[in-house]
Design brief:
13% of the residues lie in helices and 31% in strands. It has four helices and 13 strands. It has helices at residues 55-60, 75-83, 131-135, 140-143; strands at 14-20, 29-31, 33-37, 41-42, 70-74, 97-100, 112-115, 118-125, 144-146, 152-154, 158-164, 166-169, 174-177. The chain has an eight-stranded mixed beta sheet with strand order 2-1-6-5-11-8-7-13. It has a three-stranded antiparallel beta sheet with strand order 4-3-12, with no helix packed on it. Strands 9-10 form a two-stranded antiparallel sheet. The N and C termini lie far apart (35 Å).
Length: 189
């Protein structure tokens, strides 16, 4: 992007789209806005709650705290996937908030994202599962890769908890507040 003076500027991080689903369906419906409820998640979403709601985690221990109240993914991932033949739109992979202009995967644990009236605290990485291949064959290997050194790289977004409730809408700016040092890298939650 270039401003009127001819210098390069970077667009501030924004919300590209918001989504929710009252059922445990894979994709979520795109809406103009969603309401985040402190300590719970996205109002009306199947994954909202104080304790875990993802089926695999409920089966292991239903009283585990829900560190996955809100799922955020970056539009830039969808752009990368298009380059290798996968058409993925916001909400298709089950995220609640699609961001643009923000390196979600580079954020440390405990980063606070102020979006609209709400604050989300980042808890970790989404660990994608085989359901992604049910959505589009071969997609899992694009969002869950391994480096030459054997390190697993998860590209399917980040998870967070709602630290302050409020409305989040398409187009809202995203303000990033890093936690105190030492900054800890994201791991799967």
């Amino acid at each position: 992007m270039t401003d009127t003076a001819g210098t390069d500027t970077v667009a501030p991080p924004t919300v590209r789209a918001v989504h929710r689903s009252p059922s445990h369906s894979f994709s979520k419906q795109t809406l103009e806005q969603v309401t985040l409820v402190e300590g719970i998640g996205v109002e009306g979403d199947a994954h909202a709650g104080v304790s875990v709601k993802h089926r695999s985690r409920v089966a292991k221990n239903p009283s585990t705290p829900n560190l996955r109240q809100v799922h955020l993914m970056h539009q830039e991932l969808f752009d990368q996937l298009a380059l290798v033949g996968h058409e993925v739109r916001p909400g298709d992979l089950g995220e609640n908030i699609t961001t643009q202009g923000l390196d979600l995967l580079g954020l440390p644990v405990g980063t606070r994202l102020t979006i609209g009236e709400a604050v989300i605290t980042v808890t970790g990485l989404r660990n994608p599962c085989n359901q992604i291949n049910d959505f589009q064959p071969g997609l899992l290997k694009q969002v869950l890769t391994t480096t030459d050194d054997g390190e697993v790289v998860r590209l399917a977004g980040v998870m967070g908890i709602v630290s302050r409730g409020g409305i989040v809408a398409t187009g809202d700016p995203i303000e990033v507040t890093l936690p105190p040092e030492p900054l800890l890298p994201l791991t799967p939650v």
